[in-house]
Amino acid sequence: MDPIKESLLKTSKAAKKEKKGKLISEFCIALIIIAVVAIFYFVASKGLATFFTNKINLWDFLTKTDWNPGVKDSHGHPEVGALPMIVGSFGVTFLSAIVATPFAIGTAIFMTEISPKRGYRIMQPVTELLVGIPSVVYGFIGLSVVVPFIRRTFGGSGFGILSGTFVLFVMILPTVTSMSVDALKAVPRHYREASLALGATRWQTIYRVVLRAATPGILTGIVFGMARAFGEALAVQMVIGNAALLPKNLISPASTLTSVLTSGIGNTVMGSLQNNALWSLALLLLLMSLFFNLVVRWIGKRGAVK
Amino acid sequence: MDNYSLDDIYIKPLDSKEHELALSTEDLKVYYGDKEAIHDVSLPFERYKITALIGASGSGKSTYLRSLNRMNDLIPGARVDGKIMYRDLNINSAKVDVYEMRKHIGMVFQQPNPFAKSIYDNITFAPRQFGEKNKEKLDEMVEQTLKQAALWDQVKDKLHTSALALSGGQQQRLCIARAIALQPDILLMDEPASALDPISTSKVEDTLMQLKDQYTIIIVTHNMQQAARISDYTAFFYSGKALEFDDTKTIFTSPRIKATNDYVSGHFG
Fold first, then answer.
1. pTM assigned to the model
2. Which of these, A128, A206, A234, B214, has the minimum number of CB atoms within 10 Å of its CB?
3. In Å, how far is B180's CA from the nearest CA of chain A?
4. What is the CATH code of the structural domain delimited by A83-305?
5. Is B268's pLDDT higher than 80?
């Protein structure tokens, strides 16, 4: 037989490799999907047990303010009101995002528009370092510097949402900054030229053209920062005071979903109401991070259309 | 490849009694770092005329054009020496307010670059920045500039939709409208039609011919037919120098310099 024809009909080595590579990557994807689905299923089944097995009212869970799953109230219902933690979590998340955003945008503008060379030489390593510091170190610094500072300045114990906000502010700053930098860098150069050629100053160009064009990207960065703040457990737990009470003000001890989870999950028995109630908090966390992800996608889509 | 002498230069003098100059340069040099990219270019630009700058890629015509409204200020390491005379004032000086100057010397770029805003907001961008708040005046300005740019009939019903939804040729005419909204004296155009298809190109050219009555236009172009069609004067750039400047007719029929002759007849290089 003609050797070329023969080789055409056989599977070549390259084709076999191609097939193998495809198989391996498909296997990896399947594994990841299984893991994610399993986590969701596990958390959901445990978290929902509070409502289906232990017959806790979902509305009570979300709106009542007493958290003490082991104790029954005067009506004989267990006290599983998660509102204090929900308020605590959202409180530190939004406050830290509000504090971090102007700093992040300012830094990003400096790095991309004002002084790219110097900005990168200094800020790039700084942001990378900030990302690399373990959260327990942040928590420890918060405990030994931020908490006493707030105690001296505002009174009280120093533990509370304000301390949590400050610690989270530093922790999410690099995330928001680096994503803002990416968003600003993605603004086409010709936008800037068009604006400057129309007699705009550099500052007018930045706030009327560059920042407007980068808004979807910056918002995405802020939401990512918020997702990080919402999910951070250890550092917050060390400075927030861990009292499952509705915070009266920013310097009264409070707690977040994550801080109650980390401090409580080792001390409960699997299958008990106390344990299931904690899983419900975990489910709430999972749903929130899902929500943050959806927001990011939605912003991305809206930004792309414009 | 022929090497052309850089010393054979013919710049037709424009007598200031007969020709009113809108802009001129004297010994303009542009440096990028230590490298001298433009060598001693002295050119006159007559008021209400179109002057075309032609030459091969890398001959420095765009660099020269961009220094006329000091857009080269923005490039790190770039430096411009020499005089740019506008209304008897050397605008290549730190004393001149560069933002105010760009109001009078507008620019249109090669790539259509409307902002990601509505058509209306694109045109009112600069006037609003300079403090115009009167809604009626702005409306009138939008209508007038779009008419001047021959775009009004196509967009009058969608002024508040995104400018990015327009076709390339429409976007470029919008950029022209945006540039003339400030009523500049001079319009600098850096290959405004090179990214466009032939039909859009001819529309942009028609627009330029109409604008000539009110604006002095300096246009960089790769397209020699375009230069021949629309310009009154032509300058030929080679290796960072303006080798020849004359009436467009003369440049394309009987140029004095060999390099120009070879370039316009297609025997260049």
1. 0.81
2. A128
3. 10
4. 1.10.3720.10
5. no
